[in-house]
Design goal:
Layout: E1 7-8, H1 24-37, E2 44-52, H2 56-61, E3 67-74, E4 80-86, E5 91-97, E6 105-107, H3 112-124, H4 126-134, H5 139-144, E7 146-151, E8 165-171, E9 188-193, E10 198-204, E11 243-246, E12 249-252, E13 255-262, E14 266-276, E15 279-295, E16 307-309, H6 310-314, E17 333-341, E18 347-369, E19 374-391, E20 394-403, E21 408-416, E22 421-422, E23 432-436, E24 439-442, E25 444-454, E26 462-470, E27 483-489, E28 507-511, E29 524-529, H7 542-546, E30 554-558, E31 572-574, H8 580-584, E32 595-605, E33 615-626, H9 652-657, E34 661-662
């Protein structure tokens, strides 16, 4: 029981800031207007409803109308239409029909109601039921089979062109809470036409692979011998948190930003700035994870097509969890409830969708000067802004960290349940790792892409690429110990698609060439890329065409309000070629310009027994650190910690010698 912890939720604001998410009233107004204008209001659905954000330039000019973006889908004809609604005028001011019947196609994201529709369609299909009977399942068993709709990918099959389809795989369960992923039904894949409401293609492969029947459940009630030696760990802030929240605006330790949220991206950070003395300095105008893709490396029927674009094909924001106090977050929590629209355009509130709290983060800086006995140490803390999304079998946490020294970090946490494959008895799984007897986990990759509309000190920004190289022997390096740092200014978009190199320590600097720092250089931030894979699918493969953003670690583009997502607007059933490769091919000027920095990062997952029945968290992410942005250590002014620490008996003398401040 965390009785010292307090949780609160955001409230509606009478006059929203131009970047605040839509209110429930605005969602109602926009969807009512759009539905009334639809050719068939009863068949009108809303895959996406969000704020149509004003640009940085429009915000600076002021007086911009507050608008909603509403994407509709006619569930009978399949027609998809984008609408821009001026909420002040209560008028549709723009309307665009998506040409999803023409190559390279593209569909709105899969809606929640279509998940249930898919299962009903599959279970009613005679061919699928016959495939279940061939594998020894009775009609009673079939009722408990778990049918997973999966975005279908694209391979230019005739039935894919311009269609709204999903592929469905199945898992046996003995009861509703049984972990179906322990019992994959191999060799059966149904292709479902979501508009026609029927199975249009069915794979029922031979030879039949027996369904694994061993139970691998993970609920607390299933654990026979839980640990008994875990003592309580209390996180307390009796004087409250160090942050302040005003609507969607947050201030903490010289940081300020606005919280946003969209159905596709989930959490968005707006107008991130740092108070440096008397000057409030802008850093990033807008930051979010715009896409992720999970390509699988198994070429067999159940898996070759799996390459889910979890943001663009489902919507990370629409699948956000209601975070639980003491489980997802610890400490003095501030939750944000997020207004959203369901598939029928009706507003609802996503409770506790975003969590904001502080964390201790060890040592910020320290030095013991033995010559004079001066001993100074400061503890670091960070502000955490996070949300979690469950996309089918996987769960993804997105954690933005702000540090007192001006550092910015994004960490993604990957957990949940792996996709599984049934294996013939006595055989080894060829396309991944064995996780249990007759049960394999396909090798796959996870790629995320973060989009950061940079705004260092306002005005134009420039990105440069740097690496460390040894200096040749010579008069200026007589001992062979010198090395240099190279600099390459990225002037045009085609210069930018870059790959990290740990051997040379390659890094990127974002600077403002119009300003001068305390030592005469341009103030800058450094992008520090963690070790990260790139997409391993072959050149020319459809998944590589569709997920081209994952072929490079770093991209830089000139800002364009229509270039919002790393994979393009509609990756669902899209043939590929959209997104970052297309944006960068324009080769626009990006030197001393209004630029967007995109970073792709991820994880290659070779499954192992320890990943099942539920996967321990894997981490991926990156860091932005000030480099010449401040005149000194920005965390220099952190005061000594006035909290005493508890010690075990016999350690009192050592504790007194290790206090946080001695002078």
């Amino acid at each position: 029981m965390l009785d010292t912890v307090k949780a609160t939720s955001s409230t509606q604001i009478a006059t929203p800031h131009p970047l605040d998410p839509l209110t429930t009233e605005e969602i109602t107004a926009a969807c009512t207007l759009v539905r009334a204008a639809a050719a068939s209001p009863e068949n009108c659905r809303f895959p996406t409803v969000r704020l149509e954000e004003p640009t940085k330039q429009e915000l600076a000019a002021g007086g911009t109308p507050r608008c909603a973006f509403a994407l509709t889908l006619d569930v009978v004809t399949g027609e998809a239409i984008e609408h821009i609604v001026d909420l002040g005028r209560n008028e549709i001011v723009a309307r665009n029909v998506i040409p999803n019947r023409e190559a390279p196609y593209g569909q709105p994201s899969v809606m929640l109601e279509e998940f249930f529709k898919c299962e009903a369609v599959v279970k009613a299909d005679p061919g699928w039921r016959a495939a279940m009977h061939r594998r020894g399942l009775t009609n009673k068993d079939i009722e408990l089979v778990q049918v997973d709709p999966f975005s279908s990918g694209f391979f230019d099959f005739e039935y894919e062109r311009g269609a709204r389809i999903v592929r469905a795989v199945s898992f046996f369960r003995e009861h509703p809470q049984d972990n179906g992923y322990a019992h994959p039904i191999e060799g059966v894949v149904a292709v479902v036409d979501l508009i026609g409401g029927k199975v249009i293609d069915l794979t029922d492969a031979d030879p039949i692979v027996p369904i694994p029947r061993k139970k691998r459940n993970y609920g607390a009630h299933e654990v026979a011998n839980p640990r008994t030696d875990i003592k309580p760990l209390h996180i307390e802030q009796p004087e409250g948190p160090s942050f302040a929240v005003d609507g969607w605006k947050v201030d903490w330790q010289k940081w300020s930003f606005r919280v946003g949220f969209t159905p596709r991206e989930g959490l968005v950070l707006h107008q991130l700035a740092y108070q440096d003395g008397a000057r409030k300095r802008s850093l990033i105008h807008r930051a979010s994870v715009t896409e992720m893709v999970v390509p699988y490396a198994d070429p067999t029927a159940n898996h070759f097509w799996k390459s889910a674009f979890d943001a663009g094909e489902y919507g990370l924001g629409m699948l956000a969890n209601a975070l639980e106090l003491g489980c997802d977050c610890l400490g003095h929590i501030r939750y944000f409830d997020v207004p959203a629209a369901d598939n029928n355009g009706k507003p609802f509130v996503m409770q506790n969708a975003i969590c904001v709290h502080e964390e201790d983060y060890g040592i910020a800086w320290k030095h013991y000067e033995f010559r004079n006995g001066l001993f100074e140490v400061r503890r670091s803390r960070r502000l955490v802004i996070s949300f979690f999304a469950t996309v089918g079998n996987y769960d993804y946490g997105f954690y933005w960290y702000l540090y007192q020294d001006g550092t910015i970090q994004l960490e993604t946490k990957l957990t949940g349940i792996i996709q599984t494959a049934a294996v013939q008895p006595g055989e080894k799984y060829k396309w991944g790792g064995m996780v249990d007897d007759v049960l394999g986990g396909p090798t796959h990759q996870h790629f995320f892409n973060v989009r950061m509309h940079m705004d260092l000190d306002g005005g134009g920004n420039t990105v440069s690429e740097h690496e460390f190289v040894p200096r040749p022997w010579g008069a200026d390096n007589p001992h062979g110990n010198a090395f240099d740092t190279t600099t390459r200014v990225l002037s045009r978009e085609r210069d930018t698609a870059s790959v990290a190199n740990g051997e040379t320590g390659r890094f990127w600097k974002i600077s403002n060439p119009n300003e001068t720092n305390s030592v005469g250089n341009a103030p800058a931030y450094k992008l520090m890329v963690n070790p990260s894979p790139l997409m391993l699918a072959q050149e020319g493969s459809y998944v590589r065409r569709r997920g081209g953003f994952a072929t490079k670690h770093v991209w830089v583009t000139a800002f364009d309000k229509d270039e919002k997502y790393a994979s393009g607007d509609y990756p669902n059933n899209h043939a590929g070629g959209d997104g970052l490769p297309r944006y960068a091919a324009q080769n626009r000027n990006i030197e001393n310009a209004d630029i967007v920095l995109w970073h792709s990062f991820g994880h290659t997952h070779i499954c192992k027994p320890e990943d099942f029945p539920i996967m321990p968290v894997e981490y991926a992410g990156f860091t932005l650190k000030p480099t010449g942005f401040f005149a000194a250590n920005a965390a220099f002014d952190i005061p000594p910690d006035r909290n005493s620490r508890s010690v075990l008996a016999g350690e009192q003398d050592a504790a007194s010698e290790s206090c946080c401040h001695k002078g």
